Amino acid sequence: MKRYCLALDLKDDSQLIAEYEHWHKAENSWPEVRKSILDADILDMQIYRTGNRLFMIMETSDNFESKKKEEMDALNPKVQEWEQLMWLFQQPLPWAKEGEKWVIMKQIFKL
């Protein structure tokens, strides 16, 4: 099993943040997006927020490949629609590469 930790910022607007959280409640999420996550060998995904900073934890199978996930997402119209909707609320981290949304975090401590 692999673990990935990623970060992203939301636009610093309380109404947009509330709407972003609305879309991430189980009853409002899109089943096609959930299926695409599971189909990519992602076993568990959690998102946490503090202020406008998001932190995602992904647990994946050993077979998970981020490049393959990107390719699958690019071919999935519903995932692309979701990503366009989410981009209304999101903004890249100041140090993100051009076109990069979620930035992989470096582990610096483990007990």
Automatic annotation (TrEMBL):
One function term, GO molecular function aspect: racemase and epimerase activity, acting on carbohydrates and derivatives
Pfam families, A to Z: rhaM
Q: Please report the name of this protein according to its UniProt entry.
A: L-rhamnose mutarotase
| Protein species of origin | Mucilaginibacter gossypii
